[in-house]
Amino acid sequence: MRRYVIRRVLSLGLSLAVASILIFLVVELVPGDPASYMLGTGAQPDTIAALREQMGLDLPLPQRYGNWIAGVLSGDFGHSFTYKTPVAGMIAERMQVSLPLTLMALALAVAIALPIGMFAAARRGGAGDTLVMGATQIGISLPNFWFAMLLVLVFAVNLRWLPAGGFAGWDNPLEALKSLILPAIALALPQGAILARVLRSSLVETLGQDYIRTARAKGLSRAQALSRHALRNALIPVLTIIGMQFSFLLAGAIIIENVFYLPGLGRLIFQAINQRDLIVVQGAVLVLVATVILVTFLVDMGYALIDPRLRK
């Protein structure tokens, strides 16, 4: 197990190094000059040159990358020229919204998927299976922004149970959690439907294995064989989907963040791109990529815990 973990840690470090280079190069190759964009079309050439020097854009590309990555390794992501604040602080502030929202949505998706997937697998080919699979197909097909607006109409406008948008801040944890409930539900529905279908398919395949038939022959019911033996072995593809969904929810919730006016990380990246604040884009995207790689590493560790054969 130790050698397995060491190999995965080395792979994680190499992936982060390659990702940082790619992020830097892609952002640098975006057309347009940030200094000219920030100063406007009427700016004088000497003013633009001075701002480029201040931003470090006049340095050679390798030196700029070296300065940036050295700052990142020391916890300094640079300063935003639009907001005049440290990028690290901006990212940390936005992660206080995006990370809890992602975890809440993922927890809801798993809570939806596990009972539904197990129910459908236990009744494979029956009316219950057909009904559940049809419902999950509808859940996948529904646009989450439309579902979000429907939730606002019902629970915020008509019933007045939850806020329609904005974020109350963690000074009042209860109000902060209430601000995230509707966005989390809007994100969780399609992800839960996808996860339920994957779990059902994996369980159906596992239930056809010889050891399940042996367990049934020893007197276990179909539900007991499913919960005691099949579920654990069916979790590997499910863990893969959960890891992918975490990454998607953390980075791809920008539409929901805009619907509910949440100051999340996805919205920060969108605003920084519009304002050509490249240092913010680089830092925020690097944090997202690092989070995705770390989640992938944790999923790999989950594989090894579930199936000891994978440690070899």
Automatic annotation (TrEMBL):
The chain crosses the membrane at residues 12-30, 99-121, 142-161, 181-199, 234-260, 280-306. The keyword Transit peptide does not apply. It is found in: Cell membrane. Pfam families: BPD_transp_1 (PF00528), BPD_transp_1_N (PF19300). Keywords: Cell membrane, Membrane, Transmembrane, Transmembrane helix, Transport. InterPro entries: BPD_transp_1_N (IPR045621), MetI-like (IPR000515), MetI-like_sf (IPR035906). GO terms for cellular component: plasma membrane. Belongs to the binding-protein-dependent transport system permease family. This is Peptide ABC transporter. The lineage of its organism: Bacteria, Pseudomonadati, Pseudomonadota, Alphaproteobacteria, Rhodobacterales.
